[in-house]
Design goal:
Distance between the termini: 19 Å
CATH architecture: Beta Barrel
Largest sheet: 10 strands, antiparallel, barrel
Shape: globular
Radius of gyration: 15 Å
Number of helices: 0
Strand content: over 45%
CATH class: Mainly Beta
CATH topology: Lipocalin
Order of helices and strands: EEEEEEEEEE
Number of domains: 1
Helix content: under 10%
Structural class: mainly beta
């Protein structure tokens, strides 16, 4: 099943945001995810302030925007993987070398009574290659 097969579906769940550099403490909020033809749209909140994002898919990858993470659209390239969507891009981080950003969209099958679950994950990739948790949204169909 590809992300196109999920077009028109809506999901709701919990978003986790890691601002802790060690990745041990997460801020949580409710989230929604909508799969459209050619795009993934989501909402979440940080300390009560609403945020939204879009991953527009096409060509050799897509474009990512988020009212919290990315003030300007970030072009991303597709990365071969088992995920429904796997995109990678880079962004400037001060005066140093660029950092990476990775987005994956996965569909967990039902398991031991748990329902089918959509997982949208975002990670920062340090210039030395280490991937660090940034966001994980875990949602079920509404």
């Amino acid at each position: 099943m590809g992300w196109q097969d999920l077009a028109g579906t809506a999901w709701a769940g919990t978003s986790e945001l890691w601002l802790d550099p060690l990745g041990n403490v997460a801020e949580t909020s409710p989230c929604t995810v909508e799969i459209a033809s050619g795009a993934v749209r989501y909402t979440w909140a940080f300390r009560g302030a609403p945020h939204q994002g879009t991953i527009t898919l096409g060509g050799e990858g897509g474009v990512f925007t988020d009212s919290f993470h990315s003030p300007a659209p970030m072009a991303c390239r597709a990365v071969p993987s088992w995920a429904l969507v796997d995109l990678a891009g880079t962004y400037a981080a001060g005066d140093g070398p660029p950092w990476g950003w990775r987005l994956t969209l996965c569909l967990r099958p039902p398991y031991e009574g748990a329902p089918e679950t959509l997982v949208l994950q975002m990670t920062n990739v340090a210039p030395w290659g280490e991937e660090m948790r940034a966001v994980r949204m875990v949602a079920t169909r509404t």
